[in-house]
Amino acid sequence: MPPSALLSLRDIAISFGDFKALQAIQADFHAGEIHALLGENGAGKSTLIKVITGVYQPDEGQLFLDGQAYRAGGSAEAQALGISTVYQEVNLIPTLTVAQNLSLGRQPTRFGLVRWGAAQRQARALLARLELEIDVNRPLGSYSIAIQQLVAIARALALDAKVLILDEPTASLDGHEVEVLFGLLRQLRAQGMAIVFVTHFLDQVYALCDRITVLRNGRLVTSAPIAELPRLKLVEQMLGRQLAPSDSPTQDTARQSDKQQHPLLLEVDRLGRKRMLEPLSFSLRQGETLGLAGLLGSGRTETVKLLFGAERADSGQLRLAGAPCTIHNPRQAIRQGLGFCPEDRKREGLVLELSVRENLILALQAKRGWRKPIPEAQQQQLADEMIRALGIATPDAEKPVGQLSGGNQQKVILGRWLIAQPRLLILDEPTRGIDVGAHAEIVALIRRLCAEGMSLLVVSSELDEVVVFSDRIMVMRDRFKAAELTAPLHPNDIIKAIAS
Amino acid sequence: MKNERWIPVLATLLVLLLLYAFGVSQYRNFASTLVLGNLLTDNAFVIIAGVGMTLVILSGGIDLSVGSMIAFTGVLIALLVGQAGWHPLAAIGFALLLGTCIGAIMGYLIDAFELQPFIVTLALMFLLRGLAFLLSLESVPIDPPFVEQFANFRIPLPGRGWLTASALVMLVVLLAGMVLAHYTRFGTNVYAVGGDKSSAALLGVSVRGTLVGVYACSGFTSALAGVIYTLYTASGYPLATVGVELDVIAAVVIGGTLLTGGVGFIFGTLLGGLIQGVIQTLIAFDGSLNSWWTKIVIGLLLFIFIVLQRLLSRSFGSMLKAA
Amino acid sequence: MTLPLSLSQAPQRRRGTGGGTHQQWLLPVTALALIFLVNALLSPSFFSLGVVEGHLYGSLVDILHRGAPLALLAIGMSIVIGTGGIDLSVGAIIAICGSLMAVLIQQDVSPLLTTLLTLGAGLLCGLWNGLLVAVLRIQPIVATLILMVAGRGIAQMITGGQIVTFHSEVFGQLGSGYLVMLPMRVILTALVLGLLIALVRRSALGLFIEAVGGNAEASRLAGIDSRGILIGAYLISGLCAAFAGMIIAADISGADANNAGLWMEMDAILAVVIGGASLAGGRFYLGLTLLGTLVIQSLTTSILVSGLPAQYNLLVKALVILVFLLIQSRPVKQRLLGWLQRRRPSPKS
């Protein structure tokens, strides 16, 4: 029996080598509905989109469009079938005009010459459908991201799309721009389009969507109308854990109260930046670990990057050990005794060509300046010590760090900062993408460092871990601080704070 | 004019007009059509090569082989006509075809082997110069009758000036380049590849086809510049036009084309070439100034325009960064 | 999950300052050996060394003698390329510094002051490039193009458009003098390069340059002053070019603003490429760059020795570059690697 929905997935499975990216996925996307596709990192959302658009061919299962089984060979073919996709990063050419972007590859021509007048009329007509009145002869890059996003959608709609897939379209938009986009999506829904909407902002899901599908670890967790999935239940489903029956605290409150006596190390007052983070305040004591929890995209990484000066904050004051201080760039931060292990190891953490030793000593050497090189023997000793202390699996310290596994690379960055001996160490997702054994080691390491008197600020998506190593937890939601939790810490409270 | 893409080219026009007005105010003969005609003729080969170079730079690349291509074409034509007895037109046609093919091969190498355009065309620069020397170590004179016919073909301008054949060819190439860049799908693809290569590929633009086409165009215009230069000097000389690629690049950049690719106009290159010509003419008129001032002033203009571009591209760049 | 690639790919770099793996030495060494072999076959006298009036003579000495300025440029270029940049202006800096030196000597300025002022001019040029790249954030190829264009004009302005000749005992020694059987300029160049290599490799400068060139964002987050490092790299390049300019001017006892150092920036870039460095930045190999310089200079010298017109040099050089570029390009490397792996099953990890 052919499914009644506009786009239907039946028993979709796909694996890459041993890794099962998607298993037994069922989903129905109806005409005139906005359908939220949710899940944490690695849940399989982008793989599913690629299956729908034919970039990947599923190993098992069938895809139906309008009741007919279909198979697309790539996003161009999918578009010809009526399935258009708009990605998070605007895949248009900023230096071309709006009209050129909308007509690229399908310009109306006469005798081989482009009829720009006609192309501009077509562009205006397309934009009019989105109630967007802009000068189509200006370069795309001169418009705001929201407008560009809308232009990308206009291009996607140019070929009479029936299904529109939006992959995190709101990640870089501000409040007003989101409203503009939502107005358009509601209008398209009214016109009978099926819209698949991927986002990390739960408020937006409830403001806009009709139905929710949640994926976790490549499996379908739930697919239900929005009314059947209240916030709390949704967060539970996404994180894959239910509120535990008994609220047994996982931490001894004695240790916590003890730390209240420690002097304040860091006071942050209304730190923020437009389009990135609503101003927020928090403080951190010596020898204390502050956990930073929240869903992906909730502003956790932005918070620590602004604090470290990796991004320039446009508001906020900092006090370190009671004295006011300014941090405009990482060098200033490091001079003040801060350290930062970024989430994206390969792009922001390591110099892949350089050896384990060189990567390990980089921060300490930068602190000392180029004129005072660390003697060869001492470098060797520091590197060997760190390799032993953190259990970095490498034959020797001279191996290029790009050849190590993810967990070992993470340890190298950690080691880099331990060698530099900061007062405050910021860790962004220190256990992301590493194996279970290394997880436990890193959690143990965080606790040990804290016991030795270092202050830590740790961003983590792992609720079970964050309650174990944190003394307090700050919960982020939709780019602002949603709650601050104190002992006794329990994952349930985090879930509640995220869903509140 | 609210479109920021026009700012550099308008600035160029302003500089050109100011320089010209300065010339007119200082020297009585400066405004004559004779000077204007000579300006167009003397700089024809630079501007012709500049049309191809503009396309290359728009696509995000660079072509350092221009000067060598001019010299190589000159020697080749002179030998084909003088020693092999070819008809000049046949020799010219062959040289143009050869230049186009060499350019296309460069484009292919750059894309297929992921090489930097700068270093590949640098190798080509050496290769063509070497080939020119291989053909002949000396200057080769070229058959007078055809050169004379070419030189005699000219349209009188009001006043004492002439629009020579060189200038006419240059204007035709300029027009063709403008049509190609602004009124064909290929032209838009060049802008798209220069603006954002990976997005262009995602939007269905054939990056390889575009790059091969772009470098083929540059090969063609360089060879044509060689033809014009050869007829202009009535000889092929393997040591000719050393470093002309820098003049051509300067003409393109001063003409308002962004060296990072994606933004600019073919017409600007005419203005850029003329600015260099006006500076040279001014220095010649002055008599007391020395020729090196040309290089210093052009360097200064390059600096000003590059900084101007840098400031402008920040407004584009802010978008690129956020995406 | 270990990728099979990581096992056979890029073995570890040897410790110390020489730089490069055995594999990386293979290609340039082979090229050099090939050039020597062809020479040995064509003219057996190529390798003969003679002592005339206490001076060592022969083609090999000649290669060193003529290669000294290029070696200086190549080392500076190698450092700039390590940061992910390029310096097109070194030829123009040679012209500027050579001209300045000639004019100063003519004006009877003391040799010491002449040297200091000339080297200072080179540093100033380097500072200009460095500021454009590091502060205004202009692409290096564009930023250094400005001085490349204007530099020769400046040099001509200094000399007044003429070829300035001079007579100087001290600088004559630099150009063609000998010390303990070896050309003075070779010894001085070796000294300068030794100091420079020590500066880069005995301080943390080399590490910082490689870090900035390898991953600018990671370096910034690790607290490296990338702006200062970039300016430093261009300063070194300017200084090297200034010294090369002094040697070239001393050699002919005069300064030719038009032709001194013409296209030498290209030769320097080629030496670095032949040395196996990536133009994208990252690891730089000073030893391999010197080897690359030797390859280029040997090519030039052999063509001279063989009696072919010197101009053919360009053709041969172009072909050598193309071969090196293609062999070192990513697609070819990948295909070669894939082929090797099929031939030889990778060992268990």
Automatic annotation (TrEMBL), chain A:
GO MF term list: ATP binding
Keyword Nucleotide-binding carried by entry: yes
InterPro entries: AAA+_ATPase, ABC_carbohydrate_import_ATPase, ABC_transporter-like_ATP-bd, ABC_transporter-like_CS, P-loop_NTPase
A Pfam family it matches: ABC_tran
Keywords, alphabetical: ATP-binding, Nucleotide-binding, Repeat, Transport
Top-rank lineage group of the source organism: Bacteria
SUPFAM superfamilies: P-loop containing nucleoside triphosphate hydrolases
ABC transporter domain location: 7-242, 254-499
This protein's name: Sugar ABC transporter ATP-binding protein
Organism field: Pseudaeromonas paramecii
UniProtKB/TrEMBL annotation, chain B:
S-adenosyl-L-methionine listed as a keyword: no
Cellular compartments annotated: Cell inner membrane
Annotated TM spans: 6-23, 35-58, 64-82, 89-110, 116-140, 161-183, 212-234, 246-272, 292-312
Membrane topology (UniProt): Multi-pass membrane protein
Keyword annotations from UniProtKB, A to Z: Cell membrane, Membrane, Transmembrane, Transmembrane helix
Keyword DNA-binding among UniProt keywords: no
Residue ranges that the Swiss-Prot or TrEMBL entry lists as coiled coil: none
CDD domains tied to this protein: TM_PBP1_transp_AraH_like
One Pfam family here: BPD_transp_2
Family note: Belongs to the binding-protein-dependent transport system permease family. AraH/RbsC subfamily.
Protein name as annotated: Sugar ABC transporter permease YjfF
Organism from which the protein derives: Pseudaeromonas paramecii
This protein's encoding gene: yjfF
UniProtKB/TrEMBL annotation, chain C:
Positions of transmembrane segments: 25-43, 112-134, 141-158, 178-200, 229-248, 260-277, 284-304, 310-327
Keyword terms, alphabetized: Cell membrane, Membrane, Transmembrane, Transmembrane helix
Major subcellular location class: membrane
Record InterPro entries: ABC_transp_permease
Disordered: region residues: 1-21
Recorded topology in the membrane: Multi-pass membrane protein
Record-given protein name: ABC transporter permease
Source organism (scientific name): Pseudaeromonas paramecii
